[in-house]
Amino acid sequence: MARFTIDTANSLIEYNRRRLAQLAEKDASRDPLLDRVVRQLELSMRSLERQRDEMLSQEGGQS
Q1: 36 to 8, 21, 23, 40, 55: CA distances (angstroms)
Q2: Rg (the chain; Cα; Å)
Q3: For a tag site, which of 19, 23, 56, 62 has the least CB within 10 Å?
């Protein structure tokens, strides 16, 4: 069984996108800690996208 469902992955990706947009308004380049948070969110989002894409490809292969 998959660790996450595709819907859950999509929800988390959208949440990360919203948070990145909020943090972009605060100009993270001025604050090193905020910059690090932004980079972590970006990495998390990319990882979730890869996991979601892998689940989608596995689901397509089973059909």
Answers
A1: 25, 15, 11, 6, 29
A2: 14
A3: 62
Would you give the end-to-end CA distance of the chain in angstroms? Answer: 16
pLDDT in tens, 13-43: 999 999 999 888 877 567 888 889 889 999 9
- Entry field: residues in the chain: 63
Q: What confidence tier does 1 reach under pLDDT thresholds 50, 70, 90?
A: very low
**CA dist., res. 11 & res. 55, Å (int):** 15
Contacts of 3 (CB under 8 A, 6+ apart): 51
Burial of 16 (0-12, 13-18, 19+ CB in 10 A): buried
